[in-house]
Amino acid sequence: MKPLTGAILGVAAAILVGCATLSDAELAKQATEVLRASFKERGQAKLDRLNQDSPQAQCSIDDGKPLSKEALAAIEKSQFELIKYPTDGKLLGDWREGEKIAQTGVGKQFSDNPANPSGGNCYACHQISPREISYGTIGPTLLGFGKLRGNSEAIQKYTYGKVYNPQAYSACSNMPRFGHNGILTEKQLKDVTALLLDPASPVNQ
Ligand code: HEC
Known about the structure:
The chain has helices at residues 3-21, 24-38, 54-60, 69-80, 95-103, 145-149, 153-164, 186-197. It is globular, with a radius of gyration of 22 Å. The chain has two domains: 3-72, no CATH class; 95-204, Cytochrome c-like domain (Cytochrome Bc1 Complex, Chain D, domain 2, Orthogonal Bundle). Helices cover 44% and strands 0% of the residues. α5 packs across α8 (186-197) and α7 (153-164) packs across α8 (186-197). The chain is mainly α. Heme C binds at residues 102, 120-122, 124-126, 138-140, 142, 159, 162-163, 166, 170, 173-176, 178, 192, 196. The site of heme C has 23 residues, from α7 and α8.
């Protein structure tokens, strides 16, 4: 064996042995430290964004076992209790405004002015209006959402609450918590709810 090859193998073996002796918790701690060290605070983008709350921390455990049914139900219950519904009781706003919000991806980045409203960037993950042909598929299609589900008070409440805090209905959802994290305002949440449920919205034609 050439000395260089031997040295490389030796280092690789040392890394493997190192990994083998670290517990999952220690590895997770080291990974977080590397992540923290590679980010810098700029503008409104602060390092506290790397702090996970309890549901995020629980959903990030990767020990090969899914969370128990009880743990998932407890997360959903705790998140549901955090949803704030509009005090005027109205859950549907203007679907035209909702479409603009769904189309807009600005907000919360270091280069954005925090005084300006953020967008929902919904099309990054969902098909919504048939008029928009470019969309992501991380989330399910929402085309015909109101046509399929109806426009009852219960459905309005579900839709508003789902966008406010998706983890209230799906504990480890990848969808951002738009209301809970103050990304969208109450008015904007009503507008995107209308985009999905208003019978006049192109989504439901
Ligand atoms: C980063 C990707 C992502 C973004 C951005 C996103 N979503 Fe989602 N959404 C998901 C995923 C994944 C699901 C499926 C898992 C779940 O139910 O939480 C979902 C589920 C939903 C559902 C439930 C669908 C059903 O059949 O009940 C609704 C409603 C929804 N999203 C609306 C929105 C709206 C409105 C926006 C923009 C304000 C948005 N989403 C932005 C990823 C995303």
